[in-house]
Amino acid sequence: MKISKCEGVYEPEDDSYLMLSIPEVRGKILDVGCGTGIVGIHYLEKGNEVTFIDIDPKAVECTKKNLEFNKLSGDVIVSDLLSSIKGEFDFCLFNPPYLPSDEFNHRDLSGGIIGNETTIKFLNQARDKCKVSYIIESSIAPIDWKETKGLCHEVVGKITYHLEEIRLVRVWKCQQ
Length: 176
Hints:
Elements: H1 14-18, E1 28-32, H2 38-44, E2 49-54, H3 57-69, E3 75-78, E4 89-94, E5 99-100, E6 110-112, H4 117-126, E7 130-138, E8 151-160, E9 165-173
Parallel strand pairs: 1-2, 1-4, 2-3, 4-7, 5-6
Antiparallel strand pairs: 7-9, 8-9
């Protein structure tokens, strides 16, 4: 896979690569906040059906460019999280912005004042559209799981730094 970086679009980092290590991901996949498209392209190359979405038109164009660069195709849509998405997906993959900030002018980095607001909004939208979701969570802005009633979760991978831990979290709808 070849990924070209694009100005103003989040460049793949360790958290992006953590999303590439999920063996169970297959079928109909939604790459949320696709950025450069690295995550979805990885799973598309494995023969899955992938839809790419991002709120930022620059990221959508970057993903289209990288799909073309890799001689692949997939639906690429501008969408504020799942607001424009119809149907259900086997897996939804989201490496959200998770840094705390009172300014949303860096949508690729800022997840809200606490840092987890974007992720919680996604999880509550994903409840009925994603059989299983995988998200990245930072110890800087951990998820308050009480705000996602009816969802179960488990940490399935992590990267530990000096001041932060990045966690890969599997999320699914709990049985009632």
